Amino acid sequence: MADVARLAGVSSQTVSRVSNGHPSVVESTRRQVLNAMQQLGYRPNSAARALKRGEFRTIGVILFTLATTGNSRTVEAIAAQAAQEGYAITLIPVAMPTQDGVLGAFTRLGELAVDGVIVIMEVHLLDAANLTLPPGVQVVVVDSDAGDRYPVVDTDQADGARQAVRHLLDLGHETVWHVTGPAESFSSERRAAAWRDVLTEAGRPVPPVQRGDWSALSGYEAGLQLAAEPSCTAIFCANDQMALGVLRALHERGRRVPDEVSVVGFDDIPDAASYLPPLTTVHQDFAEVGRRCVQGLLDQIRRHSLEPGTVLVPTTLVARASTAPPPVFQ
Amino acid sequence: MADVARLAGVSSQTVSRVSNGHPSVVESTRRQVLNAMQQLGYRPNSAARALKRGEFRTIGVILFTLATTGNSRTVEAIAAQAAQEGYAITLIPVAMPTQDGVLGAFTRLGELAVDGVIVIMEVHLLDAANLTLPPGVQVVVVDSDAGDRYPVVDTDQADGARQAVRHLLDLGHETVWHVTGPAESFSSERRAAAWRDVLTEAGRPVPPVQRGDWSALSGYEAGLQLAAEPSCTAIFCANDQMALGVLRALHERGRRVPDEVSVVGFDDIPDAASYLPPLTTVHQDFAEVGRRCVQGLLDQIRRHSLEPGTVLVPTTLVARASTAPPPVFQ
DNA sequence: CACCCTCATGTTTACGCAAACATCACACCA
DNA sequence: TGGTGTGATGTTTGCGTAAACATGAGGGTG
Predict the structure, then answer these.
(1) Disulfide: which of A73, A134, A278, B61 matches A320 by Cβ 3.0-4.6 Å?
(2) CATH topology of domain A56-154+286-313
């Protein structure tokens, strides 16, 4: 900076003012400084800047994996929105979804240059790990029921599941079977609860749950079980990938979709439209979730206030070719 | 820090030594300092640290999208490896895959606190945008042929494609049709070139290429074309998602896979094993790519030397149920 | 014409940390 | 007993920036 100042024939403070767009610099001076900057290839040192300003203009994102559609799409939206607000985002991967893993991530977090954190994971893991957020670090949580303690942004899981189950009942199915996700997952539990509620409200029998782990393979295994149930004509899968596995199992067992069995997924990943048959599923707006996260976090950072509460992003049912009225028994 | 020093009854320098694990601090002193730190909730200010040390211990990752399996898996591996080396990673999304978008990302990069950058995208876009990397920032590029100018880490696209095509020829197919990715993609071009080479070397006819855009939908459209070609018995798709679309098109047109037509993909995404039928595909080791990127970049950062050259990560063919010998014509 | 105000610019200082150097106590040896 | 070395700890300093304050030139007003 001093070099630039010398070359431009001004003080370093003026250089600082130019690089921050301060108004009270006369146009001719500004141009000289800009010129000198370019000539010397000057770029401000962000560490010094952060030190002086007391903020990093960076958001940390803590998550287990980018391998799920939901996570990677959410992170992408977070990154885009943050960039627009002039914030960078730092990824803090949690090596393993265990207390130790989480603890490790938070330890690293303590030394990281972030003004706030977005946590994309089950909060009960946070609780279990007995964590304390570094003071001054704000937080927003995704995919959680901790709305009473933290600001939470999430897809409206319950409503999405309700739409899926109602859609199947409306088509005339007697009841709906369910392939759920892992028990540790809040989304998974929420979808299952909504499925159960709709059936109960409608006075329908609630069949036993098939448990998967979000993977297509686990869906396949669940599908083999369901294919063996002659009374099963409608299946609601907690995500699209498990639905893919279910479709394969039904196909292999010779049960035609949607003529004999209807299948609904959740997420609306791009591939779902190309499944055999194209999958009816619940569309999640991950981009909106990401956007809301950043907005919520920046609000907190600017106002220095933590306001618990849950923001729900709505879902829509996308009807494709995997659902139809049940076969007529006589 | 001064507060901690006061409480522990030592100098601030000793606090610094403790927080950096410097050896020459006596155990009793260390414990006192640690105690004081905990009591006061002290955590080192990473901005000041970076300022003093002249390095940020952060790696930037520039990419267009996390929506593709390859990118998100690579980023995940980069993040994991970087964390292990004590580096954080900062995501720098490029809003749009245009010159302006790239230029914008690099402008932001100039102000970011990173010691090096991993660029996951087509380098010709970099060239086109006439970019200069900020001095002192090292770079590693993924998915590119710029091995003469930058260090490049990439999957061995050509070998993977060769394995796929040979597999089909070995099964007895007369020739192999190809669904390629977008023309701007280096990976896509490389796979297509290898496909062509193998056919030419084997003296087989080279059918016209069907061009897709990586999406399952584009694969579906290409598949409709191919389904109408009676002579087409083997299809090599440049990625798994397009293969998914091709499978759907063939199914809808009543062409059975693999009895009448064989299909091979590329990537080996987890879902590929659950397609109808389970897809034979080329497995990419994204995790290894990510690891090598970080290693290469840290090497550069530590030695301050840029060494162009390409590191190729090998691929393996995973044979599943979508390939078989061609139907016998008589 | 003297006063004061405004605005561009310069000077000083501190942000929090750690390298470099300084100091001091103690042990060991001749 | 004095000298010397070693290792623990303290003191000084500067990293690059921007806020706060200081300066000084010009312009307007009574």
Answers:
(1) A278
(2) Rossmann fold (3.40.50)
Domain B2-44 sits in CATH 3.10.20.340: no
Proximity of residue A11 CB to strand D below 7 A: no
Q: Which CATH number applies to A157-284: 3.10.20.30, 3.40.50.960, 3.40.50.2300, 3.40.50.300?
A: 3.40.50.2300
Q: Is the CB of A6 under 7 A from strand D?
A: no
Same fold, A56-154+286-313 and A157-284: yes
A30, amino acid identity: R
C1' of D21 to CA of A3 (Å): 24
Through-space separation of residue A50 CA and nucleotide D23 C1' in angstroms = 29
Indicate the burial class of B45 (C-beta count within 10 angstroms; 0-12, 13-18, 19 or more): middle
Tabulate helix, strand, coil % of chain B (nearest 5).
45, 15, 40
Least Cα separation, residue B284 to chain A (angstroms): 15
Which pLDDT tens digits describe chain A residue by residue (330 residues)?
888 888 888 888 889 988 888 888 888 888 988 888 888 888 888 889 888 888 888 999 988 888 888 899 999 999 999 988 889 899 988 877 677 777 777 777 777 888 889 988 765 666 655 566 666 677 888 877 777 788 889 999 999 999 999 999 999 999 999 999 999 888 999 999 999 999 999 999 999 999 999 999 999 999 999 999 999 999 999 999 999 999 999 999 999 999 999 999 999 999 999 999 999 999 999 999 999 999 999 988 887 777 788 999 999 999 999 999 999 753
Q: Is B263 buried (19+), middle (13-18) or exposed (0-12) by CB count in 10 A?
A: buried
B66/A75 CB distance under 8 A: yes
Cβ contact B51–A51 (<8 Å): yes
By C1' distance from the Cα of B18, the closest nucleotide is C18
Q: Would the CB atoms of B50 and A248 count as touching at under 8 Å?
A: no
The rounded distance, in Å, linking the Cα atoms of B297 and B291 is 10
